[in-house]
Structures are given as structure tokens and as C-alpha cells.
């Protein structure tokens, strides 16, 4: 159990260090400047009673516990954090405008429903044919996001505009995983030639202090990923 800042009795995050979904929540906390929380690392082979009690439906991380009340699922947690920790100079992740907020939620859903599923297929399918097909789907989804960055951001550096927002956080949770796959496969997942806007975004987002503070080590992720396939 590791503490991330003092006075975290009121806020606790149950997670697993290599999980992209958990990374999303840690990114949201960091970007919003919420440093006073307790982080509890979970062992999937021996899940804690707190995790099983807090998420009885899926029994999975991440789970955010705020004032004794659990919130589950990464995108739900991010939206909760944005509302529960609003004001006091903290940046908003979701736009104030209802239409812009709906657009952000659409692209976040696209990332989970299309890109994330394709990444799982590319990485964990049983046959090479399925993996190859998955990689094609990953490339297509990323190219779609490259176009979305152009259309949604309108030339600004992030999906959220001048500062990272909800979509940046949801997609950013996959960056460390993508970079570990780059090392394993020897090919850039986010190709700067075919998706230049998204590649530039990944560099900008990854260089933010709030992001660097919580990003897992890529080499450690590579070792972890390879251990799952042996």
C-alpha cells in the first residue's frame, strides 16, 4: 500500500500498476492536482476484501473510494472526479458546453469500444492471423483519432483544447501500453508518418509534468507483457 500525498484517508484508489484503466484515473487525479489520496496495489491472484466488497459486480480495478463510497469503471471515475473536485482553480476535464461534452464522451466511447478492443486482439489473440487483423484495426482506429484531433481540437494541442481534457485522459491511459508494444514489435503504434497529429499529441501529452509523474516505466511494462505470453 503506497501513499500518494498526505491526508488521503478520505480518498483511496484501488489499482494495479500495469492497468491502462487505472492509469487513466491516476492521470485524471494528477492533471486535476489531486495529490492527497491513498493508493492500494491489488494482487489479482489474491484480491483484497476491500476490492471484492467495493466492486462486487466485476471485482476489478480501478475502484475509487471517496468518503467511504466506491465508484467503479475508469471513465465513470474520471467524470466523478471532474465533478467532485471542481473549482478551487482545478482544471476541468469535461467541457462546460453540453454539445462539446457529448462529443468528448462519444470519442471516449470510441476509444474503449474500438481502439481498446483492437489492442487486446492485437496483443492477446491465440493465432497470428487474429493478431495481424487486430493490428490493422488498431491502425485504422488511430487514424480515425488523428482526424478527430484535427476536427475536435481545431488546431489546438489537445483534444481538450489548450489543456488536456477527458478524451486526452482516456486515450492517455493507453500510451504506456502502446509504447511497450512498440518495443516488443519494433514498430511504432502511433506512426508519425500516417498519423502525424496524433503522434505529436502523444509527445506533448507524455511530456506534461502531471503525466510524467504517474506514467509507469515502459521497460517494466515490456517485461510484464512478455511474462504473460511465456
TrEMBL record:
Entry keyword Cytoplasm: yes
PROSITE patterns reported for this sequence: GST_CTER, GST_NTER
Coiled coil: none
Pfam family name, one: GST_C_7
One Gene Ontology MF term: glutathione transferase activity
Subcellular location: Cytoplasm, Cytosol
The protein's enzyme class: transferase
Any single biological process term in GO: glutathione metabolic process
GO cellular component: cytosol
Key words of the record: Cytoplasm, Transferase
CDD domains for the chain: GST_C_Tau, GST_N_Tau
Reaction equations catalysed: RX + glutathione = an S-substituted glutathione + a halide anion + H(+)
Residues covered by the GST N-terminal domain: 9-89
Claim: Nucleus is one of the keywords in the record: no
Domain spans labelled GST C-terminal: 97-225
InterPro entries, per the entry: Glutathione-S-Trfase_C-like, Glutathione-S-Trfase_C_sf, Glutathione_S-Trfase, Glutathione_S-Trfase_N, GST_C_Tau, GST_UstS-like_C, Omega/Tau-like, Thioredoxin-like_sf
Enzyme Commission number: 2.5.1.18
Similarity annotation: Belongs to the GST superfamily. Tau family.
Cited function: Is involved in the conjugation of reduced glutathione to a wide number of exogenous and endogenous hydrophobic electrophiles.
Protein name: Glutathione S-transferase
Species this chain originates from: Aegilops tauschii subsp. strangulata (Goatgrass)
Lineage: Eukaryota, Viridiplantae, Streptophyta, Embryophyta, Tracheophyta
Amino acid at each position: 500500500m503506497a501513499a500518494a500525498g498526505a491526508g488521503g484517508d478520505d480518498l483511496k484508489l484501488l489499482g494495479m500498476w500495469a492497468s491502462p484503466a487505472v492509469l487513466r484515473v491516476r492521470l485524471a487525479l494528477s492533471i486535476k492536482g489531486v495529490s492527497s489520496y491513498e493508493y492500494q496495489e491489488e494482487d489479482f491472484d489474491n484480491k483484497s476484501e476491500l476490492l471484492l466488497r467495493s466492486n462486487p459486480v466485476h471485482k476489478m480495478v480501478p475502484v475509487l473510494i471517496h468518503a467511504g463510497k466506491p465508484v467503479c469503471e475508469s471513465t465513470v471515475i474520471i467524470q466523478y472526479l471532474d465533478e467532485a473536485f471542481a473549482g478551487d482553480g482545478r482544471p476541468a476535464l469535461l467541457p462546460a458546453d453540453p454539445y462539446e461534452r457529448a462529443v468528448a464522451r462519444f470519442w471516449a466511447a470510441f476509444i474503449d469500444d474500438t481502439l481498446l478492443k483492437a489492442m487486446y486482439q492485437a496483443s492477446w489473440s491465440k493465432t497470428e492471423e487474429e493478431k495481424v487483423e487486430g493490428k490493422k484495426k488498431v491502425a485504422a482506429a488511430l487514424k480515425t483519432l488523428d482526424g478527430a484531433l484535427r476536427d475536435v481540437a481545431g488546431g489546438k494541442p489537445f483534444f481538450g483544447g489548450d489543456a488536456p481534457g477527458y478524451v486526452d485522459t482516456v486515450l492517455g491511459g493507453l500510451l504506456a501500453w502502446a509504447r511497450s508494444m512498440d518495443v516488443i514489435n519494433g514498430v511504432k503504434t502511433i506512426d508519425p508518418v500516417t498519423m502525424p497529429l496524433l503522434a505529436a499529441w502523444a509527445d506533448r501529452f507524455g511530456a506534461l509534468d502531471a503525466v510524467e509523474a504517474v506514467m509507469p516505466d515502459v521497460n517494466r511494462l515490456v517485461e510484464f507483457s512478455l511474462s504473460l505470453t511465456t
